Structures are given as structure tokens and as C-alpha cells.
Amino acid sequence: MAHFPINDIMTLVGPSPRFDLAESLGPDLHLRYVLGPDDVRLGYGTAAGDPGLRAMVAERNGVAPDDVVIATGGMHALFLLAFILCDRGDEAVTTAPLFPLARSALEAVGAEVRSVKLDFGHGYQPDPAAVCAALSARTKLVSLASPQNPSGVAIPPATIRAILGAMQTRCPDAYLLMDETYREAVYGNDPVSPSLADLDPKVVSVASLSKCHGAPGLRIGWAITRDPVLRQQLIVGKFSTVISCSAVDEALARRVLGQSQKPRRNHFAACLARTAAWVERNADRVEWVRPNAGALCCVRLRPDRFDEAAVGRFYRELASHGVRVANGTWFGDADRVFRLGFGLLPLQDLNAALAGVSAALDTESTT
Fold this sequence. Notes:
The chain folds into two domains: 8-26 and 262-364, Aspartate Aminotransferase, domain 1, CATH 3.90.1150; 43-258, Aspartate Aminotransferase, domain 2 (3-Layer(aba) Sandwich).
């Protein structure tokens, strides 16, 4: 029997505490926000996905509609790509820290995963030379995210191009998977970076409605590829696993993508400013890497104030205040680092949650 790896991030889909700062998304949309008078035929959809929805995704990513395959959530796309591109024993290169399910998809298909360590002190930026050193003739997939989860840090296009150049030399048949789930979750009037989907035929972009758009309950994601052979395999793989997406989900997804993102981006900006002010007030005890986009960031308990025992007590004390953060170990980082999801709660609740974190810091910091 095959076994999927167990990770404590599964607790996020269990009972929630009063203040959940472990989440990685913004406020949930409600059904009334996207319901409309249009009738929806409850038959099978197409394996490639609704044509209107593919056209909307394509326009936002600067590609053609035929480059887009709609999946049952971003994880479905990640799993299909791992299954199609990595035979058992093939190598896949990714990073740590990393959203754990992105690694699990690779391990589940029997790929040998080589991780490039990203460092808090270097702002979680990957070193192209380190990525190059991890490549080999057996590498079939390089899996990166920009902006990243858990840090919200974006990878500069120059770094991506350098990695692509190294792949063309070391593993020319490999694909570069770019998880761009947080690309549009910018702050206020900040510009949205162009998608990397059209950068090179070997680049595959994956995203979903879950993080930027507040609709994880609609299981809609997508993969974008300019490679017609890979696209056809994604369509066949989708048909072989789920046949098609829900017609209701696809219809509502069109409505979600048709809505203005300005209110959500303003909310993210306000929450980021509140979090930045909190970090500044507590700078003698915590430090952070400021994110480029997304409703999340990484915070670290300062080593000069928290020994290892105090780190453990901090998490236990935090729970007593009804607050949960995402332990860095979920993502392959140190346990003194935690993902703080600042975008889910209303501002008033975010203030109360951060006050709970401060209270835990008051109890557990050492001199």
C-alpha cells in the first residue's frame, strides 16, 4: 500500500481556534456574492475546462485559451504534473521551506526529491548556483513558487531565467513548474507582476481561486503550458481522475474572476501595515521577511531571546490565548520560524490575535 506523508498542516482543515493566524489566504467569499440569474446545466463539463473560464484565465496570464487546462483545484494540477512528468526514480528539484503538499505530490509518484535550502537571513531567495548544483541528467521537474508559501516572497525574473539557463544545459528535457497562486494578491495599488507562463515553452504555471480570490470552496485551479503534448496529457489525466470539473464550480468561477479585486487588495494592504507595525513594536523579540504579495509572511523568534525550550513554550502559551500560527516545521523550516497569515481575519480580530501573540512573547522571551 502506498502511503501519503503526514504533515501537521492537515490541522488547518480541522477545528479552528478563535484566531487563526496559521492560514494562508484572505477572507472567504460568500455564495451570495457570486450567485446570479444564469441557469447552469448540471451535465458533464469538458476535460479541458469551460471555454469561457479558460479565456478569462488566459487573459489574466497573457496566454492563449488553448494553453489553459482547468483542474479541480491547484493541488490537482500539481499532482497531475508530478504524475505525468516524473516516473518512479526520476529526480525532481524543489526548495525548503515549501508548501508541504507540493512536495507530497512528487513523493507520492515515487520521484526522488532534491531540496535546495532557502534561508531566512537571505530573504528566502533561491541561489541559482545552488539550484544548478541540484540538477542532473535525471531531473525531470523543477518545482518553484513565486510568491512563495510560506513566506510570500517573489523570485525575481532574472533568477528564474538563470535557473532555466542551467536546466537547458544540465537537463534539457525537464520542465520548470511555477506555482503563481499568490501572484495577483498584491497590496492596495501595487502592480501585479506579469505571469511567467509565457516565458519559455518548458515553463508550466499553476494557480487557483483559493488564495488570491477567496474561493477555496470552489475547487477550481489551472495549469498553463505552451507545450501541446503536455497539455494533451493534462487533459487526459484530468479525464482519467475526475472526468471534468463541477459545472457549478466553473460557472461561479467565471463570476469570481469577473469581480474587482480592489477591495481584497485594500484589505491585504491594511492587514500588512498592521502586521508591519506589530513586528516593529516587537523588534527586540521577533524579526520577519516582508512579503511581496499574499496574505502571509514568515516571522522568526530571535535566537538571542528564545532558546529551544522557550520556542516550545511559546507555541503552548499561544494556544492558551486561542491563537494558532503555522509552525515552520510544517514547511521544512526551523521551528522558531512561523507562518503568520495576516489576511484572513477582519482588522479588529487581527489586532486581537496579534495581541495574543504579544502576550505569548511576554511570557516566553528569555533574557
